[in-house]
Design a protein that fits this description.
about 300 residues; 4-stranded parallel beta sheet; about 15% strand; globular; binds phosphoric acid mono(formamide)ester; 2 domains; 12 helices; Rossmann fold; 5-stranded parallel beta sheet; binds norvaline
């Protein structure tokens, strides 16, 4: 039976571990010039309703380097924009391609596609979750910290799709996660319930970024206004006062704290210019690792129908 990757709750701990191991192995092999053409003859469709640089290019290059082909479709160029139902589009695409990656607004749309497709469907970002991002980010934590166990991870910023996926990962892997969001911008309670985190003592919430980052091994931030929320940005800039990841906030964390950001970043808003430009920054490793992790995901979903 086919499997989808719509949220990180689709994965068990063992699935995470397999993906980390394989992505790290694929990265090592790529660095040595070894190309594993395991997806020769396979096609990945990408339907994107929102902008993307990293996720799109990482998926396309991953597919090409594995010997397969990507086909990128902006939703506007498809009949979806002329109201062809998702279930019809999903059934038709299943007759042409071997896997579908979707980026859209409403998470229920990727669920609908997954239900009606006979091919694996991957969530490449919705308003609710960004699972592939957090998989490659934890891979980056493993590379730079030797593992994720007993590492304190602090989220500083909006209660958005990226932190929701961190919460999902924390609930499956038992990560020590401390989430700080401004009042009024906390993680949606519905998502918390869906993440099954009730009673999980490893996941904490606060409105105080200074409390969250105290002795943190990893600090993660993201834009204050995600795609679709841009018209609220000027108000958010004042509502998010004190939430900028800057040297002052970092001074409360562990001395070798890893600062992370999924990018794109807004300098001078959620992150200070000098933190972003730090020569030891791992943001660029995070971006690179998306390609290696996407390869591991595509390989396992297309070839095995499992993770
Ligand atoms: N991090 C991330 O998903 O970037 P893009 O929006 O450029 O794909
Ligand atoms: N939270 C951001 C992530 C972009 C990769 C957004 O949804 O716009």
């Amino acid at each position: 039976m086919k499997k989808d990757l719509l949220s990180l709750l689709d994965l068990e701990k063992n699935d995470f571990e397999k993906l980390f191991k394989r992505a790290i192995q694929l990265k090592e092999r790529y660095t040595k010039g070894i190309f594993d053409k395991v997806l020769t003859g396979k096609t990945l469709g990408l339907i994107f309703d929102k902008k993307s640089t990293r996720t799109r290019v990482a998926f396309e290059t991953a597919m090409i380097q594995l010997g397969g082909h990507p086909i990128y479709m902006s939703t506007q160029d498809t009949q979806i924009s002329r109201n062809e139902p998702a279930k019809d589009t999903a059934r038709v695409l299943s007759r042409y391609i071997d896997c579908l990656a979707m980026r859209t607004f409403d998470h229920s749309l990727v669920e609908e596609f997954a239900q009606s497709s006979t091919i694996p469907v991957i969530n490449a970002l919705t308003d609710s979750f960004h699972p592939c991002q957090i998989l490659s980010d934890i891979m980056t934590v493993i590379e730079h910290k030797g593992g994720y166990k007993n590492k304190k991870i602090a989220w500083v910023g909006d209660g958005n799709n990226v932190v929701n996926s961190w919460i999902n990962a924390a609930s499956v892997l038992g990560l020590d996660l401390f989430v700080a969001c401004p009042e009024g911008f906390e993680v949606n309670l519905q998502t918390i319930e869906d993440a099954g985190i009730e009673g999980k003592i490893n996941i904490k919430f606060t409105n105080d970024p200074r409390e969250a980052v105290k002795d943190a091994d990893v600090i993660y931030t993201d834009v204050w206004a995600s795609m679709g929320d841009e018209d609220e940005l000027s108000k958010r800039i004042s509502d998010f006062e004190g939430f900028q990841v800057n040297k002052q906030l970092l001074s409360r964390a562990s001395s070798d704290v890893l600062v992370m950001h999924c990018l794109p970043a807004h300098r001078g808003e959620e992150i200070a210019e000098d933190v972003l430009e730090d020569s030891n920054a791992v943001f660029w490793d995070q971006a690179e690792n998306k390609r290696h992790m996407h390869k591991a995901i595509l390989e396992s979903l297309i070839l095995d129908g499992r993770y």
